[in-house]
Cas3 C-terminal domain-containing protein (Solihabitans fulvus), 121 residues
Amino acid sequence: MIDDDYDLTESGVDVVVLHAIPETDLVMPTQGTASVDLSSDTVDAVTLDELVASSTVLSAPDGVPHDVVSTLHGTPAPAAFISSPWLREHRALVFLDGQCRIGDHVLVHDRKSGVHVRDEW
């Protein structure tokens, strides 16, 4: 049975997992070494490859709270992603000290096991 209140377009969201570079407005893809200004409207090819390699899907059916997915869907894609057909539908998930707060939830990132909701650890 399909729940009419459940929006399949919001069951998952494409994200690029990034780490904040302390004391700057820059971020670094988890799968790379590039420094990225998310407000820039252009990204070079090497950085684009690193961003794509750092992308994943957060999905409510896979245990990510639906409100996290919904909140991320409501966040605009960064300017740096808009010009790329591979990233224009992605959202930035920026971690500082391995944590990222989305609404009432804290997500954690571990390079080996990926992104998790803190309550699940």
User: Anything to note?
Assistant: Strands lie at 12-20, 27-29, 55-59, 91-95, 99-102, 105-110, 114-117. Residues 45-53 form the longest helix (9 residues). The chain has one domain: 9-96. The CA atoms of residues 109 and 115 lie 5 Å apart.
